[in-house]
Amino acid sequence: MVDFGLIDEWEPAPGRLTTWTASPESAARARLAPAHPAPPSHQQEQYLRLARRHAAAEFRYSGLCLVTAEIPTGELNRHAMTRAINAFLLRHDTFRTWFQIGADGAIERHLVPEADVEFVPVDCGWVDDPDTVRDHVHKTTPGPFDWDCFTFGIIEREESTTLYLAFDHLHTDGFGQYLSGFDLALLYTREVWDETPDLLAPAASYLDYCTAERAYTATMSLTSPGVQKWLELIRGNGGSLPVFPLDLGKRTDPYTRSAHRTVSLFDEDTAARFERRCRANGAEFVGGIFAAAALAERELADSDYYFGMTPVTTRSTAAERASVGWYVTLLPVAFPLGLSSSFDRVMKLAQHAYENGLRLTTTSFQRVIELLPADSDLDLSPGWACPMISYVDTRELLGNEFFDTASCGLYANRAASEQVLIWINRLATETTLSVIYPDTTVAHESVERYVTRLQAVFAAAAGQEDR
């Protein structure tokens, strides 16, 4: 089992806290790092501009991602962990970069020389209260305009140790968060055990990826096929992005913080039955997910057209699949339901729409928005937000068999929330659904209705015999 949620919900047991952060000398040298020509990815640029625009918020507006695990030993070798952490930071070049936005609005990347990277342990003493640990993680992990916006820590007790890795979202996507924990575990094991098998594949340069992405998207124009397809879909949706089908409540404050809920969808036997039904109709598990979402939305909002968004990885090589970075793009899943309420028929439509969306993987939606003229009739403001549904089959991840043993966790900070974000994760024994949404009374009620209806559609689909 993997725990998903907000950092506020993380409940580490008492223990002796040690944290690893950049040494003062390393942080000072990093500030002098020279500019590097690699641009931010489109995803990073949007994120940085939003973070700068909301810098005056009274809370951390940018995303903070926390990875946790439990290790069945009460004493870790601090010297070995220090070497492992520094090796990890040097293995993935995204962690050697920082950004600044100039007076002209241009974003400039700086690259810290390898010799200037030095994270060191700090003994913080015994901590009894989870609030103290959570507050420590928040306070010691800087935001996206500082180089060292990532920290590491352990909480030791006699029988076990809690390990955590905290990153600003600037440097990692969901797969990167998993990969970070796996990499660090292997690097540490290598330091303390000479017979550790070499499972670390060479990692691609994220800077090279960003450079290649920008070179490709620079060739696009409003007449490019991918751009035209995006615009066709947006215009077919009334000129705007999709929204959650139910009311999320009026905001009286400048910002609405996040709320979270995780529920179980299937045990593995039921998930396998659901998957068999999908495949019997020429679809995959993901096609069944969007069919269920479309049918739930029609029942709740009387809609005969489904338009959803889903994040997918843009990693395309073995080296990129070994690389930590923000390798993600957002894709459309749009299709008409017509009058049919048949799950099998809608599932075929959903699978086809998902596959059509995959054709737009290299057409960054951020780039599409850049290309729009100032007088465009489309409602796409710079701070746009839309709901999404993400699906990950964690059984395909190397080392997933240790998730239960290590009591792994993935958590996010209570950042600002405007839309409903859904993650469906298929684990070895259970498929779960996690939702992040605005923390308003109306949104709580609406998300409860939505999740209940979606669970019912899934249950009905999985309960029927294969055809």
TrEMBL record:
Question: What InterPro entries does the annotation carry?
Answer: CAT-like_dom_sf, Condensation_dom
The cross-references to Gene3D superfamilies, in alphabetical order and at most eight, read: Chloramphenicol acetyltransferase-like domain, Nonribosomal peptide synthetase, condensation domain
Q: Name one Pfam family in it.
A: Condensation
Question: Coiled coil where?
Answer: none
Start and end of every Condensation domain?
A: 73-377
Protein known as = Condensation domain-containing protein
Q: Which organism is this entry from? A: Nocardia suismassiliense
